[in-house]
Design brief:
With 159 residues, this protein is an alpha+beta fold. It is built from five helices and five strands. A five-stranded mixed β-sheet has the order 2-1-5-3-4, sandwiched between helices. The protein is globular, with a radius of gyration of 16 Å.
Amino acid sequence: MSGHEITLVVNGVARRVSVPARRLLSDCLRHDLGLTGTHVGCEHGVCGCCTVLLDGEPVRSCLTFAVTVDGQEITTVEGLAGPDGMSAVQRAFAECHGLQCGFCTPGFLCTVTALLRENPAPTEEEVVEGVSGNLCRCTGYQNIIKAVHRAADLMAEES
């Protein structure tokens, strides 16, 4: 099986990798680049565990072929933290207990990061709609929703 040479800018670093044409972005990130923070749950794009940011927009990496994103910028959960530590979204999820088993957390963190970049002060309904594409089997969503509002507050304080 021949590989396709692609360059991905992952978490700010250009990474060159050879992948088969049908390699999923989630598999490329996890197996080829060693970034195991991106989780694979349903493998059908339903659960949102594999969500990463592609040029700033949330995408399902389990539905995206790696060769189709050659040259684009990808942010995984490993790239959300700044040089000073956790991002506001990560801090809020920890502070508000917005995670339990943690399996869905990377997808939520990427989704919420994009949501708050687009809408820094979402209403309750906008938060519910914004995270509706991510499934969690543990939390019941109340603390996730609290975490989104807390992250919005933290981001407002930082600016």
